[in-house]
Specification:
alpha/beta; TIM Barrel; eight-stranded parallel beta barrel; 11 helices; globular
Length: 326
């Protein structure tokens, strides 16, 4: 059966509520949780941004689900060594259940330290060096690192799991997708047009083959945002009110504050969600939408319904969509 995950929007819900939603998702057949790592919500009205590493520890106790960050940016708020330690701890506590999802980051969350926010090329270079350093620490051996962007005194991770957690790299462009295949254990990407997703998978698999790996053995995770409600009008209103960032068809990595996103939100119209967030009360439309991603070759699809109607969504999605996937 296709693997469906629950995308936990920590920027939208109180962390205690999200534990409850995740438990309900587990009861209804969801097998994974992808947890957002934000310091700020996209827009002020979303209202939350709990610390994901505390939350994932609670999730591990409350459920038997696999889970991971979707995604964390190393090298800005977090030194890569701190991420390696946090990831190793969760895997030691919940063996075989945690993955470390990392990406190049967005100013909304990472500029808060007051450092210069670099261009995309530099962010990618920092990501590459971060992966190198984290993998060294996951060896369990003493590590000393003096790179272009990061330094580490000779040290080691003392609480190591039997097997290090897998590293999944988030990619929305071909260069990062190829890097993910070559240097990481899996791929994370957001939903996009089929031709773009097909190209990302091809570059991911190319990188894996160049590194001597079997691409079929490496997980490919997709995160998809939808808006379901009993009527189209309600689903549309949920998207506009709760998730206006989903209708912003432009690069968002350099936008710095929820208030800036709120200003952009005034320009968002229902037609801007086309190809980005499926707005529909029709469960069959959602089933076809989700099925299309498995047909493209993804192993796991993590679903976020953008409305506040999470409990109703989880129960009905399980019955009307998950049970009918092939």
């Amino acid at each position: 059966m296709p693997k469906i995950g629950y995308a936990a929007a920590l920027e939208q819900f109180h962390p205690t509520d999200l534990i409850r939603f995740s438990k309900l998702a587990e009861e209804h057949g969801f097998v994974n949780v992808m947890a957002a790592d934000h310091f700020q919500p996209w827009v002020p009205s979303q209202g939350h941004s709990a610390f994901v590493w505390s939350w994932m520890g609670a999730l591990g106790e409350a459920t038997k689900l696999r889970f991971g960050s979707g995604v964390t940016a190393p090298g800005f708020r977090y030194h890569p060594a701190i991420l390696a330690q946090a990831a190793a701890t969760l895997e030691a506590m919940y063996p075989g259940r945690f993955w470390l999802g990392i990406g190049s980051g967005e100013a909304l969350n990472e500029h808060i330290t007051g450092e210069y926010w670099p261009e995309q090329g530099t962010r990618f270079a920092r990501l590459r060096e971060s992966v190198e350093l984290i993998k060294k620490l996951f060896s369990g051996k003493k590590v000393r690192h003096s790179g272009k962007y990061f330094k580490l005194e000779t040290t080691q991770i003392w609480t190591m799991p039997t097997t290090p957690p897998p590293i999944y790299v988030a990619a929305s462009g071909p260069q990062t997708a190829e890097f993910a295949g070559r240097e990481a254990d899996g791929l994370i990407t957001p939903a996009a047009a089929p031709e773009k997703l097909k190209g990302l998978i091809e570059r991911f698999e190319k990188g894996a083959r160049e590194a001597g790996k079997d691409p079929a053995s490496l997980p490919k995770l997709l995160q998809v945002h939808i808006s379901w409600a009993p009527t189209y009008e309600e689903a549309e209103q949920n998207a506009l009110k709760e998730w206006p960032n989903g209708g912003m068809n432009f690069p968002k990595a350099d936008v710095r504050s929820p208030e800036d996103f709120e200003a952009f939100a005034k320009l968002v119209r229902p037609e801007n969600y086309k190809g980005r967030v499926l707005i529909s009360p029709d469960w069959e439309a959602h089933r076809q939408h989700i099925q299309s991603f498995f047909d493209l070759g993804f192993d796991e699809v993590h679903v976020h319904n953008v409305g506040r109607n999470q409990e109703e969504f989880i129960k009905l999605f399980s019955k009307e969509v998950m049970a009918k996937l092939s």
